[in-house]
Amino acid sequence: MLFHLDDANQGPNAWPERFILVADELSATTLAELPQDRLVGVVVRDGAANSHAAIMVRALGIPTVMGADIQPSVLHRRTLIVDGYRGELLVDPEPVLLQEYQRLISEEIELSRLAEDDVNLPAQLKSGERIKVMLNAGLSPEHEEKLGSRIDGIGLYRTEIPFMLQSGFPSEEEQVAQYQGMLQMFNDKPVTLRTLDVGADKQLPYMPISEENPCLGWRGIRITLDQPEIFLIQVRAMLAC
């Protein structure tokens, strides 16, 4: 099922049980607000494969095609195949092609099931050298909590995600609660917190930034150096944990 994302405010009941999201653009903020247990595919017209949203949606294991040459409105209620491996969108495929992709999906599900048997084994080389497996976290707390026993810690916690879901800058107390929740979730394992990294394709709805070349402009540490109150509040919240 296809759901065409527009500028309307969508409540939780607006989303079908299973849907492919087709949109002109997709921000990390919008992605974080979607019901990820219902989202089975993503197609974006104006988007790059290395954008923040694309990286995040791939991390969720959702087939994605970015930069698709399509008009979202013409795909409503059409049968779609989103081939994330090839970066292809197939519209109204023939029955034989649909059956082939259904077979490939079944094979992938079986491979995932077989891999599940080994997921709790220690990560190590043939030489016996142990390798630490760290999680890139911040998007899906429920998913991250399930992985807690299988990983060695958090290699990067993206603190900008909670900022994106707020209507204004979170207070120091709100940030303390957020970071404490992450630290408690992983108990005695190492957690690396990254300070606020916004700008370019990661915009805060209450702090719009308009630049000709935002990827090389006012973003990340440049923003927090120019706005020290944002940086200091966040660092105090981290140290309080």
UniProtKB/TrEMBL annotation:
Family: Belongs to the PEP-utilizing enzyme family.
EC nos: 2.7.3.9
Listed Pfam families: PEP-utilizers, PEP-utilizers_C
Underlying gene: ptsP_2
PANTHER family, per database record: PHOSPHOENOLPYRUVATE-DEPENDENT PHOSPHOTRANSFERASE SYSTEM, PHOSPHOENOLPYRUVATE-PROTEIN PHOSPHOTRANSFERASE
Name of the featured protein: Phosphoenolpyruvate-protein phosphotransferase (PTS system, enzyme I)
Keyword Magnesium: yes
Species of origin: Escherichia coli
Keywords: Kinase, Magnesium, Metal-binding, Pyruvate, Transferase
Classification via SUPFAM superfamilies: Phosphoenolpyruvate/pyruvate domain, Phosphohistidine domain
Residue span(s) of domain PEP-utilising enzyme mobile: 16-87
GO molecular function: kinase activity; metal ion binding; phosphoenolpyruvate-protein phosphotransferase activity
Cofactor (UniProt): Mg(2+)
Domain PEP-utilising enzyme C-terminal: 115-239
